[in-house]
Amino acid sequence: MYLKPIHANIRPVTNPKPGATKQAVLRNFSIIAHIDHGKSTLADRMLQLTGVVEARQMREQYLDRMDIERERGITIKSQAVRLPWVGRDGVDYVLNMIDTPGHVDFTYEVSRSLAACEGAVLLVDAAQGIEAQTLANLYLALANDMQIIPVLNKIDLPSAQPEKYAQEIAKIIGCDPADVLRVSAKTGEGVADLLHSIVELVPAPKGDPDAPARALIFDSVYDIYRGVVTYVRVVDGAIKSRERILMMSTHEAHELLEVGVISPEPTVAEGLVAGEVGYLITGVKDVRQSKVGDTVTLLNKPATHSLGGYQEPKPMVFSGLYPMDGSDYPALRDALDRLKLNDAALGYEPETSAALGFGFRCGFLGLLHLEIVRERLSREFNLDLISTAPNVIYRVQMDDGSELIVTNPSEYPNGKVGLVFEPMVRATVISPSEFIGAIMELCQSRRGNLLGMDYLSEDRVEMRYELPLAEIAFDFFDSLKSRTRGYASLDYEFTTEKSADLVKVDILLHGEPVDAFSAIVHKDKAYAYGVQMASKLRELIPRQQFEVPIQAAIGARIIARETIRAIRKDVLAKCYGGDITRKRKLLEKQKEGKKRMKMVGRVEVPQEAFIAALATSNGDAKTAKN
Amino acid sequence: MVFTLRVPKQPDGVKPPLTGELPATALQSLASKTFGLYLHVPFCAKRCGYCDFNTYTATELGGFSQSDWSAQITTELQLAKKVLGGFPTIQTIFIGGGTPSLLPAADFEKVFRNISNHFAADIEITIEANPDSVTKSSLAQYLDIGINRISFGMQSSASKVLQLLDRTHNPSAVSSAVLTAAEVGFRDISLDLIYGTPGELDQDWLDSLTTATALPINHISAYALIVEAGTKFANQVNRGEIPMPDDDIAAARYLQAEEFLNQRNFHWYEISNWGVAGAACRHNQLYWDSANWWGAGAGAHSHIGGLRWWNERHPATWAQLLTAGHSPAAGQELLSTAQQFDEQVMLGIRQRKGLPVSLLPAATDLAELQAAGWIEPSALAQGQLVLTTAGRLMADRVTAEILR
Fold first, then answer.
1. How confident is the model at residue A573 (pLDDT cuts 50, 70, 90)?
2. Do B328 and B356 fall into the same domain?
3. How far is B254 from chain A (nearest CA, A)?
4. Nearest chain A alpha carbon to B289
5. B247 and B369 share one domain
6. Three-state SS string across A96-108, please?
7. CATH number at residue B198
């Protein structure tokens, strides 16, 4: 995109230095927005307007570094940028913009990013209105007592309805519609006013500069050259380079090799003082040694109490990842090891599947997290993978009082099962009100329980449901989108676990259970799952030399059956002079295909059949993105 | 009116030299291997719905005319003679199509005139013919200029099957054409049959076999109907107007044919070909033995000593290249030793004479193939791999097992 040069801040920069900035001139804020509502574009425009990035260096969406992020328009890892800005009062201010991840799976990271700020810009697309995701993060910010600056973006769009959506926002946050700022991040219109408003409305930090140092880790990123780069907000005291720091949750001490700020390239500083935001480098190699939410203090003069709020990441969704080509197993292990350096929430352990061979059972925060990891494995590490259908974590109580945690259907016990507990979510759907019926129907079919419903405006409604996580883990979001012509948005948060009438359905091929196809489903849906899977496989598995029964079973009870008839003919009738080349090429292709066959007992199953059978109804195993 | 040219695809290959010259390794084979000619006649009065052969109706010829055929073929054969360093003895000629019987004997006579001095004394010259487009005098003239074998496209004796296949002839036309051919003196007459057309019943197939074998013929080629991508038939199947031919039915028909023909002294010598003793088509065996042949005409394939090439498919393009003094080849591939071996197995296994066991890869699981009932135990005992009837129906799988 061609960018017009903007010279709103042309005074020579006499901005305060990192490590010597008074809290009174600091403003720490983040931007809460739905994907596609223009957060990254707004951030770009702020970088440009404050002069830290010149127009000619401007790369679209400067802050979203990873390719995947740029392609999907989402931000996975947050970063913090220090921006100089001269207020309307002529004072040199320092604005720290803390970028927040934009997805439900990263709620905890969002909450830590928000905890590092005193204010938040609520950015809403003037043509679309607020979305469920934004609402959830807004509630997080309000719970933190943050100053909210409501902003409508994309006012340059012909389809923008700023009046309507200003009213909607005003109603949600309890302000006057006239207080809602209007900007176009694309053209830059209104962005300078927004920066002024941040100075004027967001409170300055109020830490104790003389107390023992306490800094909140709100992000932790692995860099191949520097090791882990830890992003912190200093709350009290000061942190200087070469000091020894202490992680309060792990009690591990590290020497500080470097302290600095991002503006927007890393810039080394003497230190960081109360209220400031910057990065620390200690030379540790694993983000698990520098955990988001932890409190950093100084080894020599430690604080007595941490800042609180630290939580261990807890995987909620599991999937088996298997290399297409068995010889890629070590490569997959290395790739996961590499990703783990940068992803404290990713868990995995080796797993063997009779059908798919050697792979890993991986735990994820949620569906997008799974999708991102899988895509990075394929894109950055060139791995061809089969992933099994995602499943949630179950707690199974046996009749004899023992208990086990099941993260893989194949571990589901066959013995006397008492109660089975599954994780529940509280889901929020925002949609035009014309789709209320369709949404209710969908949620009911997914064992949902309506908790409440509110009109955000005349024709937009917020619906709250309690749903089993397992029911939204597969293709819920796709179904929601298709039933609402793409208008509905979804957010969910984990609440509790509840017992449910669940059973394991096994799929047997020629009498052999195929572990990759086993699923834990609600009793009422077991038959449908069995029938659907059996008929899908009948289409997908080529005929063998013998008849192959496909059965779906709960324990020893067969609930569905299909048969693949034995093959009787595998020959092309004609083979004359002009057919030979074509026929040989077909044979060469078959030889390649042979390598991609998996043996299940005596049955040859093409890998494509596994992929297709494990994919969702729309023919693709991709999960919800919102 | 605007007509779009229908140009079917050829295999991927590399661009051959415009001169048509052949690598020395290919030329070396000329001394030791049998040599034949294939002449392609790319004309049809009407395209049949199932056919994906390289053929064109009059409106599709785009500037090429049937009357140019003999002159252009002669030009290509002159090029052949030049790049081969003179013709080896020509053992067989096969005139295929399309519908060769649309052309008068005089056209073929012009072509033969320049090469007949290379003909083997016992040369086999076959022409494919449509029962509709021959007369007593045209048949007599074909025989007169040296054509000594004729193959008629009968396909079926059931009119509903012929209709579905888009064939123009009436079932009774076949009988009269065969009888006339025999009457004018053809000794080697073959019929082409198609089985497994949707709607065909067991009895229809039996009727076709009965009708065919009651005629004075000594050879039958019978093919399961294949739905070829891009044909009218494939489109009808895709639209759900015609069901997909059923493999199980095709298998049953094959067994029916094998049993019926054996009783009448027609024995298989290749998966889809049966003949009475001594009536096997020598030209087709040349393909299956990877011998040498030059295919002249639009889209024709050739093979000389491990080099395969194929001509430009459209007659107008083919003719333009020849007129400009160039080779009409569109693509070629020089086979590696491994590829030649694969072809040897793939083609050898289709023949009654089979493959010497000594030739097979050491890892070949003969016990398993025998347990499956696919290879003849008696032949195996004599060191030869020969398919059983059930094995012939699984020939592609057996090939894949051997070459895995």
1. confident
2. no
3. 10
4. A577
5. no
6. EEECCCCCHHHHH
7. 3.80.30.20
pLDDT band at A286 (very low <50, low <70, confident <90, very high): confident
Instruction: Work out the percent of chain A whose per-residue pLDDT is above 70.
Output: 91
User: Do B250 and B376 fall into the same domain?
Assistant: no
User: Is residue A309 over pLDDT 60?
Assistant: yes
Same domain, B102 and B245: yes
Which is more confident, B9 or A584? Answer: A584
ipTM exceeding cut-off 0.95 for this assembly: no
Answering whether pTM is above 0.95, one says no
Does residue B310 belong to the interface with chain A, where contact is any CB pair within 8 Å?
yes
Residues B68 and B117 in one domain: yes
**Residue pair A246/A302 in contact by the 8 Å Cβ criterion:** yes
CA A139 centroid distance within chain: 19
DSSP type of residue B51: -
Of B288, B316, B334, the domain-final residue: B334
Chain A residues with CB under 8 Å of a chain B CB are: 545, 565, 567-578, 580-585, 587-588, 590-591, 594
Distance between CA atoms of A440 and A301, rounded to whole angstroms?
Answer: 57
Looking at the fold, whether B381 and B290 belong to one and the same domain comes out as no
8 Å CB contact of B251 and A575: no
Does A478 or A377 have the greater pLDDT score? A377
Q: Let me know if residue B330 belongs to a domain.
A: yes
Confidence of residue A55 (pLDDT cuts 50, 70, 90): low
Q: Are residues B274 and B360 in the same domain?
A: no
Nearest to A566 by CA among A537, A549, A544: A544
Q: Is B295 part of the contact surface with chain A (CB cutoff 8 Å)?
A: yes
- B346 with A584: Cβ contact below 8 A: yes
Cβ contact, residue pair A569, B342, below 8 Å: no
Least CB–CB distance from B393: residue in A568, A580, A587: A568
Q: Final residue of a domain: which of B334, B350, B372?
A: B334
Cβ-based contacts of A545 with chain B (< 8 Å): 372
Mutate to test the interface with A, among B394, B401, B402 (most CBs of A within 10 A): B394
Reference A351, options A515, A597, A478; nearest CA is A515
Q: What is the mean pLDDT of residues B55-72?
A: 90
Same domain? For B226 and B237 the reply is yes
Upstream peptide bond of B243 is cis (omega within 30 degrees of 0)? no
Q: Which two tokens stand for residue A493?
A: 């948060």
Using a CB-CB cut-off of 8 Å, the residues of chain A touching B392 are 571
pLDDT at A60: 57
Examine residue B71 and state whether it is found in any structural domain, yes or no. yes
Contact B393 A591 (CB under 8 A): no
Count of domains for chain B: 2
Q: What would the two tokens of residue A407 be?
A: 């993260």
A and B: number of Cβ contacts within 8 A: 94
Q: Kindly state whether residue B147 falls inside one of the protein's structural domains.
A: yes
Strands A92-98 and A26-33, sheet pairing: parallel
For residue B177, being part of any structural domain is answered with yes
Residue range(s) defining the domain that contains residue B367: 337-403
